[in-house]
C-alpha cells in the first residue's frame, strides 16, 4: 500500500503506511517492508537511504535475494565492483529462480572482459 501511495505521489500517506507496517510487522514481513522503503529511496534519489534500507532486510532475513541484488546494483554505481559481484552471486545462490542476479553478474563479467 505504501508503494502504491508513493507512486501516486501521495507521500504523506505512503510514509504513514510504512510506519504502520513497521510497527505491526514480524521479522519475515519487515524484510519486505524495508525492501520497499529502499525503492522509495531510489525513487526520490536518496541512494544513501536506499543503501541502508537494503541492509536492514538482510539483517531480518539473511537470504533475502532481492536485497542482495539491489545492493549489488548500488555498489556497482559506487564503483565497488568486487562487492557488487559478491552481492550478485549471493543473490543468485539464495534464490536460484531469480534471473536478475545472474544477468547482472554476467553483464558485469562481460563489461570487464571476462568471458
Question: What would you say this structure looks like, in words?
Answer:
It is a single chain. By secondary structure, this protein is mostly helical. 81% of the residues lie in helices and 0% in strands. The protein contains seven helices and no strands. The longest helix is centred in the N-terminal third of the chain and has 18 residues, at 27-44.
What are the SSEs and their pairings?
Blueprint (H helix, E strand, L loop, with lengths): L1 H6 L3 H14 L2 H18 L2 H14 L4 H14 L2 H14 L5 H13 L3
Helix pairs in contact: 3-4, 4-5, 5-6, 6-7
Quantity of strands, as a count: 0
> Spans of 5+ residues with little confidence (pLDDT < 50)?
none
Write the element-wise H/E pattern from the N-terminal end onward. HHHHHHH
Rg result: 15 Å
Structural class: mainly alpha
Spatial gap, N to C terminus: 42 Å
How would you sum up the major sheet? none
Number of helices: 7
- Strand proportion, as a percent range, falls in under 5%
Question: Based on CA inertia axes, which overall geometry fits?
Answer: globular
Helical fraction = over 70%
Mean pLDDT: 93
Keywords:
115 residues, mainly alpha, 81% helix, globular
Compact overview of the structure:
The protein has 7 helices and no strands. It is an all-alpha fold and 115 residues long.
Amino acid at each position: 500500500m505504501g508503494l502504491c501511495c508513493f507512486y501516486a505521489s501521495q507521500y504523506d500517506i505512503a510514509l504513514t503506511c510504512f510506519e504502520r507496517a513497521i510497527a505491526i510487522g514480524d521479522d519475515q514481513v519487515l524484510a519486505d517492508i524495508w525492501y520497499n522503503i529502499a525503492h522509495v529511496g531510489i525513487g526520490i534519489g536518496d541512494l544513501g537511504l536506499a543503501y541502508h534500507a537494503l541492509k536492514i532486510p538482510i539483517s531480518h532475513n539473511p537470504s533475502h535475494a532481492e536485497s542482495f541484488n539491489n545492493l549489488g546494483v548500488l555498489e556497482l554505481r559506487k564503483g565497488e565492483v568486487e562487492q557488487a559481484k559478491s552481492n550478485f552471486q549471493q543473490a543468485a545462490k539464495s534464490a536460484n529462480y531469480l534471473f536478475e542476479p545472474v544477468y547482472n553478474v554476467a553483464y558485469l563479467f562481460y563489461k570487464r572482459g571476462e568471458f
